[in-house]
Design goal:
The chain has 526 residues and is α+β, with helices and mostly antiparallel strands. The chain folds into two domains: 215 residues, Beta Polymerase, domain 2; 177 residues, Orthogonal Bundle (Poly(a)-polymerase, middle domain), CATH 1.10.1410. It contains 19 helices and 13 strands. The protein has a five-stranded mixed sheet with strand order 5-6-9-8-7, sandwiched between helices. The longest helix has 24 residues. Pfam families: MTPAP-like_central (PF22600), PAP_assoc (PF03828), RL (PF17797). This is PAPD1 protein. Keywords: Magnesium, Metal-binding, Transferase.
Length: 526
């Protein structure tokens, strides 16, 4: 029942279904600059009940409007006209994106109540540091960071709407298809301003299976046959990409990257302001999203620690939005999960333990890999661990500052350090595709830089005199860790690098000097 679902934590699938349904009843309106909110809502109500709405800034003011009934959209569309093609010719594709202008703007001299605008990006790091200095503990600093960076309800609605608008194109060819977000948009670890990863799904949700059993005939569609699934994927994405490029209102910079390991179409969706990556259904990626969703829901410390470590890594140039030899956010997130599995008692269960709890419905074998784990959060016993985030943050740096990366790998299935199967500097087992290392791209200098930064951070937290720093109005706790090191302490750094191969120290210190200027830029810009 609905009441029962609302009191317990929803499963990943329930949240997805609900959000996709919400998005289907939603439109996006570019509003006139002097807008009377009450007037707008009054007008919209003539087409049906408006269930929720919010305004945001995106080259002017936009409004996301969620109706209670899908039929209200058709009613509104009937009243909307096609733009007059005086200087431009238009592609007459009718979407759920509208522009409203006032018919007689002069008469609007009423004192406007200013609209509340929902923020769609997070504050710059320097502003964050000021806020952190006002907190009373590292733990509360970490929750402040989490609150500033995590996706808001409004931003999530906008992400699902972007998927739903792309789906309208896919449905022109494939009426049963859906477009769903995966990765950071749905796994509870998404940051404001991050891209939207979406995939096209053709799977009939099992509704046919029962009907097919009836009658004396085996019946199937005649469909075009191609030598490989990859080729089919490439062709479908190529056509959908062309569609978005040629007909999609507000779809700009469409790039088809069809020869990648996972073929995709990149585009910028201007009405919602997102950078989007569209690929064809990847079941394992969805399982990873759900696994992280479960970990994120189990204990509030999980997300606070992940957001903190990722922000820390970004400030120190350990991660980068461009692909390369540095650690990815996904790898960092997995390292945090592993660390939480290693606490005593553990804060989150291992993947094998989640698999033990899996019911019949939770069984998933994908391409020969067992991707089964429990989806009902009520079946997972809460942890008995009571460590504060203050403790966990210091311990994280301590743990990885002294981890034997030469010998050991990180395995979330077992929650144990296991011998490395091959010699990559950093080896993190892919939780599902057991023969893959998700951090294969990381080279030795980048790993050593991570180790050095972790040691430096552990040391700063240990030696710190919080009261003194607060009196002196100096950044303390987490705030002190979000200021690039090495301004005045590259000699101190050298001492703490004793155990690290000297050939990389030089390149490391150089990259630190380089990174100070650029990483602050990046941290602020991203």
């Amino acid at each position: 029942t609905d009441a029962e679902v609302s009191t317990r934590k929803k499963t990943f699938a329930e949240v997805q279904t609900e959000r996709l349904d919400q998005a289907e009843r939603t439109v996006l309106i570019k509003c006139p600059s002097k807008l009377n909110e009450k007037k707008l809502l009054q007008y919209l109500a003539s087409h049906g009940n408006v269930k929720s709405h919010f305004f945001f800034e995106n080259r002017g003011i936009s409004a996301l409007i969620e109706f209670s009934e899908k039929s209200s959209i058709a009613s509104l569309q009937d009243a909307v006209g096609i733009p007059s093609a005086s200087e431009h010719h238009v592609v007459p594709f009718k979407s759920r994106l509208f522009t409203f202008t006032l018919k007689n703007p002069v008469s609007q001299h009423v004192e406007e109540t200013p609209l509340h605008l929902a923020p769609q990006c997070h504050i710059p790091v320097k502003d964050l540091i000021e806020k952190l200095c006002l907190a009373d503990s590292i733990s509360s600093q970490m929750y402040i960071l989490l609150n500033e960076y995590q996706l808001t309800e409004e931003n999530i609605k906008l992400r699902f709407l972007a998927c739903s608008l792309v789906r309208d194109f896919a449905r022109a060819y494939f009426p049963d298809s859906t477009v769903k977000p995966f990765g950071s948009s749905v796994n509870t670890f998404g940051k404001l301003g991050s891209d939207v990863d979406m995939f096209l799904d053709f799977r009939d949700t099992g509704k046919h299976a029962t009907k097919m059993k009836k009658g004396p005939f085996e019946m199937e569609y005649q469909m075009k046959r191609l030598p490989s699934e990859r080729l089919a994927t490439q062709r479908i994405l190529s056509v959908i990409g062309d569609c978005l490029d040629n007909f999609g209102p507000g779809c700009a910079n469409v790039q088809k990257i069809l020869n990648a390991r996972c073929p995709l179409v990149k585009f910028s969706h201007q009405p919602t302001g997102f950078q989007c990556d569209l690929s064809v259904s990847n079941s394992i990626a969805i399982r990873s999203s759900e696994l992280l969703y479960i970990y994120g829901c189990l204990d509030s410390r999980v997300r606070a620690l992940v957001f903190t470590i990722r922000c820390w890594a970004r400030v120190h140039g350990l991660t980068n939005s461009a692909p390369g030899t540095w650690i990815t956010n996904f790898s960092l997130t997995m390292m945090v999960m592993f660390f939480l599995q290693r606490r005593s008692p553990p804060i989150i269960p291992t993947l094998d333990q989640l698999k033990e709890l899996a019911g019949e419905k939770d069984k998933h074998i994908i391409g020969g890999y067992d991707c089964s784990f429990v989806s009902d959060l009520r079946k997972i016993k809460p942890t008995k661990n009571t460590e504060t985030l203050d403790v966990l943050l210091g311990e994280f740096f301590e743990y990885f500052g002294n981890f034997d990366f030469r010998k050991n790998s990180i395995n979330l299935r077992k929650g144990k350090e296991v011998n490395k199967p091959e010699s990559s500097p950093l080896y993190i087992w892919n939780p599902f595709e057991q023969d893959l290392n998700i951090s294969k791209n990381v080279n030795q200098p980048q790993l050593e830089k991570f180790i050095a930064m972790a040691r430096e951070s552990a040391w700063i937290l240990q030696k710190e005199d919080k009261t003194q720093q607060m009196i002196n109005k100096e950044p303390w706790g987490l705030a002190a860790l979000l200021i690039p090191f090495g301004r005045n302490n590259s000699s101190k750094m050298k001492n703490r690098m004793k155990g690290i191969g000297s050939e990389t120290i030089r390149s490391l210190l150089d990259s630190l000097k380089l990174n100070n200027a650029s990483s602050q830029q990046k941290a602020v810009g991203k």
